[in-house]
User: Fold this.
Amino acid sequence: MDSHLFSVDYFKKALKKQIKKNGNRLTPVQSMNSYYHSVVSAIIQDKINKNFELIRRIRHLDEAYQAVNEEVLQKQQQQQ
Amino acid sequence: MDSHLFSVDYFKKALKKQIKKNGNRLTPVQSMNSYYHSVVSAIIQDKINKNFELIRRIRHLDEAYQAVNEEVLQKQQQQQ
Assistant:
């Protein structure tokens, strides 16, 4: 499997893509929450993986969420 | 620990409370996604628990999300 898959960088890119895609109708946080829900839901319904691996993926997603959220907040402050 | 805590019913009540609380400014799905993110984030950052227990809690939250979302959709269809 691609080692990049489910990495923090992988999720950061995916979150930014979602924010851009929904830019007209959702706030960045709303976009990220929507993506977060759908990904966690898919991860924990995956019965192939071990619990450790599921938790690792969700932790990466969570770390990426926090990083992108920080970037969004900084951009918003610069624009004010 | 209260056995009700982190049960599906516990999360269903919490999700409904959030929807009601944010009723003026967020859609039901936006409220639920926001709650889902904050709870999963808190659960996976909890280092006391075993991975199995973390996954169990997230699965309960996810099951509750789907149940409440179904109820919301049914209500919306009845109102149309």
User: Anything to note?
Assistant: Helices of chain A lie at 8-21, 28-45, 51-79. Chain A has a mean pLDDT of 92.
